[in-house]
Amino acid sequence: MLAQDYENLVPRKIVEELDRYVVGQEEAKRMVAIALRNRWRRQRLPDELRDEVSPKNIIMIGPTGVGKTEIARRLAKLSGAPFIKVEASKYTEVGYVGRDVESMIRDLVDLSVTMVKAQHAEQHREKADALAEERLLDLLLPPAPAKVPTGIYSEGAPVVPSESYEQSREKLRKKLRDGALNDRSVEVDVKDRTTSQIGVISGAGMEEIEMNLREMLGNIMPGKKKSRRVKVPEALSLLKQEEVQKLVDVEEAVREAIHRTENSGIIFIDEIDKIASREGHGPDVSRAGVQRDLLPIVEGSTVNTKYGMVKTDHILFIAAGAFHIAKPSDLIPELQGRFPIRVELTSLGKEDFIRILTEPQNALSRQYIALLATDGIDLQFTQDGIAEIAEMGVRVNDQMENIGTRRLFTIMERLLDTVLFEAPECSEKKLIVDAPYVRSRMQNLIEDQDLRKYIL
């Protein structure tokens, strides 16, 4: 999103947009709304001061399933910013030990380039569609060979298509647009996307080396084309893709993508509590090593990518973790200082579950109603039915591991598994989910502790 597009995204409006998808957690929403608004404020500063203002990175503290990831993901979607989610624990695996933490920046740039190319392609869509249509008409009705007139003529004179040819072409164009030619087949030349069989010795970070090697050799060797016989709609789609790729200025797209990454990029680092060191020996040594390697990226450095050098000084980092065992103070002091804002997300209760099941735009009840409507089933949830589902979710979370909202997914699947299975053949096309129905389907399962451990 460009700087001027942020102007209408005032913090209160950002929170209202997040409320459509995330229930509760007002403090966390306020903090990320302020962080996003500060992006726009920074762009309005004089040049000499703009580079001095760094983003205020955030740590979200709270149990699983309370909305940490969803808040960050919706924020990025709202702003149109490049966004990736990484697991901090991934960098403690054998072979990584924090040495390849720069890969998160390379992944962010790749995503940004893809986003910008798609936006530029959309801008050229109309022109590309017209060019693809002309190419397809050439395949369906090749131009007639030019007739050489008798007598003296000029070799440089343009050959004017005959009037009958133009009329036939226009008739064919009308049939193409009306879908009358969809059953016809044509031969088109398409780029052979078969990847060359190049392999390298596997190991830490070697996957990226292999990808870069394949791309380098692909650029050196001319791309082969192969002829395919396809139906007219597929041929038109293939030709549109080729024309769009020709119209997009790749260098300009890469420059814009790097600029967006550096000034608007958001990286969500999940499970950061898993790399918090407590003792300083054994596996904690490697955790501290990951933190030390992560530190320069968070505080601002220059990372080499296949598109060029990328500065991380103004990328917003949002970290999250449950911190059941470790505490934010167990992170190394330098890394703590780079996350000045700490927000604690609260556990969800019955009222929160009721709101999650009904209020958000993507509420679970709405999802199941829409899914079963495709089979002609009229699914209805009563208020007491929703309350009973929420009560069971809270009870199971209290008695077992608290997994937050994700418990509702499990309960809803078990509650509706019969109708989901029988819906295509079911003669009864209406189902009302009320409290008695929920209890009849779930009560025995909820009360059987041994069975509950494996099913819920």
How would you characterize the overall build of this protein?
It is a single chain. This protein is α/β, with parallel strands linked by helices. It folds into three domains: 3-117 and 255-344, Rossmann fold; 125-145 and 164-247, no CATH class; 350-450, Orthogonal Bundle (Helicase, Ruva Protein, domain 3). Helices cover 52% and strands 12% of the residues. It has 18 helices and eleven strands. The chain has helices at 11-19, 26-43, 47-50, 68-79, 103-123, 125-140, 163-178, 206-220, 232-247, 250-264, 283-299, 333-337, 350-358, 364-373, 383-399, 406-422, 435-447, 449-455, and strands at 58-61, 83-87, 185-191, 225-231, 266-270, 302-305, 308-311, 316-321, 341-344, 378-381, 430-433. The strands form four sheets. The protein has a five-stranded parallel beta sheet with strand order 2-5-8-1-9, sandwiched between helices. A hairpin with a 2-residue loop joins strand 6 (302-305) and strand 7. Helix 1 (11-19) packs across helix 2, helix 5 (103-123) crosses helix 10 and helix 6 (125-140) crosses helix 9. The longest helix has 21 residues, at 103-123. It is flat, with a radius of gyration of 29 Å. The two termini are 42 Å apart. The relative contact order is 0.14. The model is unreliable at 199-204 (pLDDT under 50).
